[in-house]
Please model this.
Amino acid sequence: MDSADNYSALDRWMHTIAFASRGAQVMLSELEDKWFARQLQTIAPERPVFVTALPRAGTTLLLEMLEGSGEFGVHTYRDMPMLLTPLLWSKLSRWFRQEATVKERAHGDGMLVSEESPEAFEETLWAEFWPQQYRDHWIEPWNPRFRHEAFEQFFNQHLKKVLLLRSNGDHRPRRYLSKNNMNIARLPYLVKRFSDAQILVPFRHPLQHAASLLKQHLGFLELHQADEFARRYMRGVGHYDFGANLKPINFSNWMQHTSLADATQLGFWLQYWCAAYETIYSQLAPQIALFSYDRFCVAPQQSLHAINDHLRLTAPEPLFRQATRVKAPPLHAVNTDSVPTELLERSENLFQQLSAYALNR
Model:
């Protein structure tokens, strides 16, 4: 659904207007709070779950499988493009809502999505309230000492709205589920501000992961060059992972010594992998669980039980039944001739450390 080819001229116009009116949507959300106050008072969110990692680590599959358990409320493509006022948009869009159609997403990885599919749209909230973190060439990590009362109040209300939207008859999810790759930039902040949150961080072997990141970046560079709307759409929903919108997270100031022009090389992505997961490893806390995607592909049932042990689902059977969905990603042919030996050794040593602490080791 995130391919520009899936949007009509009317869709593109509506998205353009929505992306340009985020400030107005924040103000309109206050009216939304009042109009739906009675319904929102009945929503009591508990134990939110944040799935986050570098892209291409299996976060989308984990999102879909957890959403399929029936325990969570999560953003779907139906919530686009008025993401900051989801209740009002749900009422308005009923007049021209189309039937759900299944299509492959723009990543070209075989993942099929429709208007009802869960997706990562949460970053728009962060970008609206924390513009100072989004620099020209990178994104600055959040300091756990940061406080932003307006954002925290808005975010807590937003969780309630998503849960209310996903309620249907007797089915009323009480837990918010987020898949947002950029949340690895703010793990200590999330732990501090959402004390009952549980965070799942998948990882893959560094060489295969870096090769997958490189392939996606090159593909999105071509897409963004061919279609300006595709670039604006991805930027509008807060996806700075690849292509012309690329803004890596500046873990330990690694980007101050690196050029975005190097992102067409494997070494750039391997260096990013190391900077990201070294920081994540240093920030581990009881709420944060590492999850080996490689092990997941080998032992899906055992891995799903490990996820349940961490997240404590009320009824885990629907999650366990999805084990057959897990397939190993295709192996990339990796040429490491241009990659420094020190970087290869650094990444392999870090991978062994992560694997030793993985939830499903």
User: Anything to note?
Assistant: The chain has a mean pLDDT of 88. The chain has one domain: 4-356.
